[in-house]
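Subject: Sanity check before I submit

Could someone independently write out the structure tokens for this chain? I want to compare against mine line by line before I put it in a report. The sequence has 526 residues.
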Amino acid sequence: MTDVIDKSGEALAGANRIYIFDTTLRDGEQSPGASMTLEEKLEVAELLDAMGVDIIEAGFPIASEGDFEAVTEVARRVKRATVAGLARSSPKDIDRAGEALRHAARARIHTFISTSPLHMKFKLNKEPGEVLEMIAASVTRARNYVADVEWSAEDGTRSDIDFLCRCVELAIKAGATTINIPDTVGYTVPEDYRALFETVRARVPNSDKAIFSVHCHDDLGLAVANSLAGIKGGARQVECTINGIGERAGNAALEEVVMALKVRHDRLPFHTGVDATMLTRASKLVSAVSSFPVQYNKAIVGRNAFAHESGIHQDGMLKHAGTYEIMTPESVGVTKTSLVMGKHSGRHAFREKLKELGYELGENAFEDAFVRFKDLADRKKIIYDEDLIALVDDEIVHAHERIKLVGLSVIAGTGGPQSAALTIDVDGVSKTHQAAGNGPIDAIFNAIQALVPNEAVLELFQVHAVTQGTDAQAEVSVRLAEDGKMVTAHGADPDTLVAAARAYIAALNKLMVKRGRHRPEETLAG
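---
Independent answer below. Compare away.
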């Protein structure tokens, strides 16, 4: 295998080094409703770079001006990791990717084409011979821009093995340094995926000239298991995302892959360069900027991953933590603490608590969060960690929004009619409207509709309590759809009606980003 030089300049020809290729900003952002602003992408990229991710796939440069700008800016900012841009096999795609990556300290063009009979016939309308010609041409063109070229066989796990081997051999001959055989539709099973890599590497005569990569989707819930099987089959790069976000059922979760290799080193004798203590922080950031909540029982980074309610489990934990925990919370960035937060807590205690929960806010964001915390503490007897997480996540999501909730008054009850008086701030300009509705939520949304006219359809409205008790914060989730665009946003507040207003406004802000509108006031009535 060709030597690959790591960030310290040492040759990594060793068989046990696994490279982590994070595609949160590309494949992850393709999740319906998960689009991120440029500022959010840069924040995620800088954290990925700091935690030791080897390759950051920053986007699909030809897809849009926004994607091109994101790849360009990530390439400028990131200094340690390789920055990759995705490109189809067309010259225009590759040229655009090369242009976006021109300022990268380490650049990779990731080009792909379908190789399965199904995809070649119905998606590409190409004969196998034409696909082979496109592989040679695209990899050669990419090498004119960068020395590091990755080639992917889309729908590789449903491809004919003989044809796949011909494609891989040709791609390496043309200059590809990484070969990715993705399970594009989440169809394979671990033993078959391992055998696929073993077969291709054995049959392709120049396979030792490239690093092989896995990219697994989770349609059958096997993405991580398949990725680990691919490693056993000889792959040395794993393509994955924070929290496993991605198209359809998502991708292999980075945090699960990293910790599986760390905890089960006895059966998986491999290592990565990722600082595992930053996993929880990365999970919270991606959840906040994508508005995709992490399920409570999510492995490694879920709220309940290190929680024990059963009496038997609690008894075992008190006697020895190893009875029910195979890793420590600290190993993934979760810190146990007895620090109790309340209305008498000061800024220093609040800042330390946020650090323990994985947040480090800028001064302005911290002051805004502290004001909201004090307001919450005045209204709520007990402040749980989950309350602070909801509060800060809400603050992060709203930090760059130009439409903000200023005030809300609601009249409700059995007598009716229900009405809402809403005041919003748009670029520093205050606007107010009062509307009636079939219930207080309907009245609030009607008032927002009057101030921010739109054709969006409300596809989801969901309320749940963040913690227990009648004074618990409510978290409201709203999903809006418009012209094929879909966004999901959340709002949290002890007042459910306020949380609903926050969520709806957050969703509208996200929808405006997807429309490509940069000045919210253009959409306002009058």
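---
OP: Matches mine. For the report I'm noting this point. The longest strand covers residues 403-411.
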